[in-house]
Amino acid sequence: MADILIASDADWVVAELRAAIEGPDTTVRSVRSGEAVAAAIRERTPDLVVLDLQIGNMGGMATCIHLRLEADAGRLPSVPILMLLDRRADVFLARRSGADGFVIKPLDAMRLGRAVRILLEGGHYEDPTGAPIEISAPAAVG
Description:
- About 35% of the residues lie in helices and about 20% in strands.
- By secondary structure, it is an alpha/beta fold.
- Strand 1, helix 1 (about 10-20) and strand 2 form a beta-alpha-beta unit.
- The radius of gyration is 16 Å and the shape is globular.
């Protein structure tokens, strides 16, 4: 059974995640602040942490970096981290913070399910909607 910890202060984000990933083989628990994530991990190590980039007091990027530093120092177990991004430009932040994967909002059950499954299997997931925009020259008129 997979145990997933969600960190978001937006009730709609938690509700969408629960609807997409909670099931008979998956438990979902949540905290409302980035600061609460480390304590929740110490209490019971999850199989996956999902961080919303926009958490009020300690955002997803800061929380991800904090978790990685604590794990490197041996004070927390290392757990896979999926980050929920607000826009394409945030991909850089997710990569730099050490997240194992990211999904760009708006959220949908297909991408969330795929990302969660891949990360639980030990892989990496980069949302294909985060690919760079291809710019082509305008067609010649005439």
